[in-house]
Amino acid sequence: MKNETNIMVKNVVDVVLGGITYWLFGYALSFGESEWTNPFCGWGSFALNPDEEAMGEVYTKFFFQLSFATTATTIVSGAVAERFNFVAYVLFSTVNTVIYCIPAGWLWGNHGFLRRMGVVDIAGSCGVHVCGGSSALVAARLVGPRIGRYDHGESPLPMGSPTNAILGMFMLWWGWLGFNCGSTYGVSGALWKYAARTAVITLMSSIGAGLAGMSISWYKNHRLEIGDVVNSVLGGLVSITAGCALFTTWEALAVGTIGGIISVLAMPMFDKLHIDDPVGATSVHGLCGMWAMIAIGLFVKADKLLGLTSGNAGLFRGGGFYLLGIQTLACACISVWSMFSTYIILKAIDMFCVSIRMSEWEELVGADFAEHAIRRRNIGVSRAVSVLGLQHNGYDYSDIAPQGDNPCHQQVLAEMKTLSRRGSSVSKAVARVTDKRSKRIKLPSFNFFSFGRKKKSARSSSSASNKINVMPFQPPEGYGAWE
Questions:
Q1: pTM of the complete model beyond 0.90
Q2: Are 315 and 298 in contact (CB under 8 A)?
Q3: Which domains, ranges and CATH numbers included, belong to the chain?
């Protein structure tokens, strides 16, 4: 709960900064078709602005692919939650477009070598989820586990808000239908049949995965763990995304069930390796994305209506090992590319720009308090600042008020306590508070543009540069109940 808003802000950053860079160069490197285009990357259409004749097709592809690109980055934010430096994440989000857009061209661009070989990834299990999951694995490993995460074993930590987790699952569940059904790029001709099949197949896979996750959770603990339920459903959605328009309902149920099992059982494996992934992004997106690609190579029959499989069929459909081999090759290429690129980018940021790991003080008080001046009650922030103090890196955080209090109202109520007849003295109290000539209760000053950080004087900064003020902050008299 000390980092909840910070994660949401990072998602906003992904869309804003990832969106501008995808417009500037991401689309060009994925789908550019100039004379400089090659099997590795596209070239052309930088700072995209197509003419009227081509704008329908180009804008449709741009809008859809922009959503994919920002999703691939967002996957990483969950894996490094609660300890990744916000400024470092902003830099990473800005340049992470490169990690997605190059392999997207391999899969879906006319120049892509994987596409020419006949790879099948309809809605992004490999291009989005394997890419994002592989990046998440490297990022979590580089930034290291949260403070004290494995000091008392590898069991999952208590969830901050199980209700919000389930709400997020439903939002993703609903949005996944748009991602998958929209990947048919139309409803004309026979496309409406594929869109309708995609909706049902996506739901069937998630249902099978949810049944698997709930069964495993009940078997382990005789209760339903919210993390297992949420991640199993999401694992099933990832597992069906690559072949969402090709599977039968029975196949979708089986694929989703296996995906749910993978997502639930793989998370403890990474914890045993002390790779701290709070939301299971590596297992849910990375491993289930790989399973999605392999499942196509096993179960899919050759598509004759639109030729989505380039005439190839899966191993169990009499197509031999060719399609399975291509699907496996795509997973290997994109996972290696994503891990290597993420490592280079994060290392460069850490060495030349800013540490990718937030300080111990920031981690213990929470990113919401340290980065966004949000101080919630009863979640441990007050205990942290009472021990660590409210000065950090030359800034004073003592003017951050608890969330929900209105300092102006608290001031009026404090003034009313000094009046003899409270019930009939509200107006008098307000007048005494707002009248500049009267004696008023002084409150901490608020500088909203400094995000709660007030620079200390040079004298106090120098004297406290090498030590932490461990004195708890005391609110001014009359300010009201303090957490």
A1: no
A2: yes
A3: 4-352 (1.10.3430.10), 384-463 (no CATH)
